[in-house]
Amino acid sequence: MQWRRLARLHRETLHGRERRLSVIGAELKRIRECVGLPQSVAEEAESLVKRFFEVVAGFPPEVVAVALLWTAAKAAGVPRPLGDFLKCSEADERRVRKAAWRLKEAVRLGRRPSVEDYVGTLAARVNLPAPVVKSAVELLERNRRLLFGKNPWVWAAAALWLASFRRLGLLKALAEAAGTTTASIRKAADRMRV
Question: Is the whole model's pTM more than 0.70, yes or no?
Fold first, then answer.
C-alpha cells in the first residue's frame, strides 16, 4: 500500500521533461498496442525520444508518439503506412510528418543539432541570404542563455526575423517553415537582446 502512495507522489512531483516523457511513453504504449507492433519497436521509439527530446519538444505528445513509432517501425524493418498510426491517434497528419522529418534529420546527423543548424535549415527553406544567416547566428550567440530548454525552431526563426529587420511577410513564412506560430516567434524576438 505504501509503495502505491510513493508511486503516486513520484508521478505528481515529476519535473516538466520527465512528466512529458511519461505522457509520451503512455501514448507510445497505447498506439503500439492498437497498431500491433512488436515491443522492440516501442523500445526503439523510447530510446529515440530520450536521445532527441529537444528536436520534437515543440509538438504535442500524440504527434510525437506517432512520429516516433512510425520512424522506429521503418528502422526495425516493419514499416506501416502512416494511416495505420493515425487511426489510433488524434494527431494531425501534417504535424506528424513534420516531427518525423525533424527526427529523421537529427538521426541522420547522428548528433543533437546545434542552433546554427536550425538557423541554416530555416534560412534555406525561406531563401534568406548568407549575411542574414550570419547576423542571426551572432544574435543567438549573444543570447545563448535564453535557449536552454526552449524550442530551437522558434528561437532560430526569431533570430532570422530580427536579422532581417522584422519584415512582416517574412514572419509568416518563418512561422510556417519552423512549424510554429507567429506569436511564438514575436515573443521570442521580444526576449532577445539585440
Answer: no
